[in-house]
Amino acid sequence: MISPRIYMLHRVLPVYDADNYYFKRRTAISWETFIYLLDTIQAHGWSTRPASELNQNITEDCVFITFDDGYADTAKALDEILSRNMTATVFPVKDFTLSGFSPIDDMAQHLMNSTGVTSAVQDSLLDGRLKKLLRRLTPQRYRQLRKRWFGIEQDEFCEPLFMSESQLLQYSDRGIQLGIHGTSHRVFNALTTDGLKHELSQAHNWLSRFSASTTFPICFPHGAHNEQVVETCWGYSKILLGVDTESICSNVLRRQWITEELRDET
User: Fold this and answer.
1) Own/partner pairs for 170-174, CB < 8 Å, 24+ apart?
2) Which is higher by pLDDT, 124 or 8?
3) Taking residues 110-130, what's their average pLDDT?
């Protein structure tokens, strides 16, 4: 049985910056590395396919490019993909798109732009300890704790961080597939079964506004899942994507994490 070649990306930024949070967390690649990835796909003669086809006649020549969260800089990457007659799948988050806000991204921006944040706090976000807490919070609760813990009252975003609904519609019309990545981006296994069903239904109904599809692949926020989560998600989609680790569930597909080190590894 062929293991599908599924690539996982988040942000594609213009240039590499060692001090940038996203490069430190390895959730960004430079434009140069992104172009290298696409050139490599073309040089091998591989065919890019949408994630909805992961259960259909997979061959060694198939590639699935996925983008998590729907960051605004994904649009330029999608333009490049489409210009090469390729395709990809984007997993936007409803609340991020509608509000332009994400607790983890807001804290990352504060850490990058503030000189008053201690190194201990920076380290806790970079090594995942603070992130594990933030990913469970609603924006309202996050803002309350941000003020209490750090005395920060203002959001840090100064420009659009996520793709708009009109962009999602535009790219869907051009052949880019959309997938479910939750409504709030909170970890699925931190929700009750009813809460998870609500999260999935809300995301499904929202994406249905931009796509003719009636089913969407599901990508777990932060890769977190358990058997109960998988069972619940299975009622909404037969294509479930994790991250670059082995899953406890055989029907969760593993993705290859594309990082800035790609050119050194090939």
Assistant:
1) 171/75, 171/78, 171/90, 172/210, 172/211, 174/82
2) 8
3) 72
